[in-house]
Amino acid sequence: MIDRKRAQAAFREYTSQYDLENSMVSHKVWHTMRVAGNCERIAESLGMEADLRSFAWLLGLLHDIGRFEQIRRYGTFIDAVSVDHAEFGADLLFREHLIDTFLSEGLSDEWRALLETAIRLHNKLTLPEHLDEQTRCFCDIIRDADKVDIFRVIIDLPFEARIGSSMNMIQEADAASDAVMSCVYEHRCVPRGIRKTRFEGRISHCCMAFELVYPESREIVQEQGFLDRLLEEQDEEGNLLCCDREREQMRYVRREIETAWGEAIN
Q1: Which of 10, 186, 199, 227 has the fewest CB atoms within 10 Å, measured from its CB?
Q2: Residue 8 buriedness (CB in 10 A; 0-12 / 13-18 / 19+)
Q3: How open is the CA angle 240-242-243, to the nearest 5 degrees?
Q4: How far apart are CA 62 and CA 142, in angstroms?
Q5: Sequential pLDDT tens for the chain (266 residues)
Q6: Interior CA angle at 86 toward 11 and 151, to 5°?
Q7: Burial 30-50 (b: 16+ CB within 10 A, else e)
Q8: SS3 sequence, 80-123?
Q9: Pairs from 231-236 (Cβ < 8 Å, separation ≥ 24)
């Protein structure tokens, strides 16, 4: 069903036109490959046969294809000030026919539609109710696989590099707002529009843990340990958070995630 060698070669060729010396670009390449591997691992944990595992892998490979043109055009990965990268990537693939370079033989219309839907929805706050069981499953796989690796990205890539040209948008404050903390209380992700500060962004990334669907996704998170580091009462330089309220909020976020998971984060 999926020719992985062709798909990988097409991905390398496509990304080679971008500045791979730019850390934002190179990290996105490696993020893509890790997400593809996560997708396959989650699919395998669900007992999927080889063709479906390969489809999940391809979904991971293509989910962020819009990111590369986004950073070239806008200098940022912040969708709110540039373009919805998931919609943009799906348009490149399925309206500008980039998808054909990744496939040695055509996917059926059904599988093309599923692939496009999952890519378009992978960054949305919630999934629509009308999805059929198979589509929802693959949407959940890519959303889990992406969240799992975002914990790594937040630790590995410096804040300034992640934000790029949008640094002037970030406000500073000592502690997270009530609106952000209410998402923690309710065990849900933080909507993009209500996080305004660097610290609120950190809490919002931690809150992704609440919405991981599959046990295998949580297992990967535990193995890697990046969420545990995000939940520490320290800043990115390893210094103790200077605000008592911030430290208290981070402790609360950890407790709520551990409550939701039924186990300690390590």
Answers
A1: 186
A2: middle
A3: 125
A4: 10
A5: 789 999 999 999 999 999 999 988 999 999 999 999 999 999 999 999 999 999 999 999 999 999 999 999 998 888 988 999 999 999 999 999 999 999 977 788 999 999 999 999 999 999 999 999 999 999 999 999 999 999 999 988 766 655 554 444 445 667 899 999 999 999 999 998 898 888 898 999 999 999 999 999 999 999 999 999 999 987 766 767 778 899 999 999 999 999 999 999 98
A6: 80
A7: ebbebbbbbbbbbbeeeebee
A8: HHCCCHHHHHHHHHHCCCHHHHCCCCCCCHHHHHHHHHHHHHCC
A9: 231/206, 231/257, 231/265, 236/158, 236/159
Compute the distance between CA of residue 15 and CA of residue 224 in angstroms, rounded to an integer.
Answer: 27
Q: Which residues contact 158 (CB under 8 A, 6 or more apart)?
A: 236
Domain limits of the chain? 1-160, 170-266
Residue with tokens 């046969």: 49
What's the token pair of residue 35? 């997400």
The residues pairing with 234 across neighbouring beta strands, listed in sequence order, are 240
CATH class (in words) of the domain with range 1-160: mainly alpha
Give CA separation, 89 vs 57, 116, 120, in Å.
17, 9, 8
Burial class of residue 206, CB neighbours in 10 A (0-12, 13-18, 19+): buried
d(Cα 43, Cα 64) in Å, to the nearest integer? 19
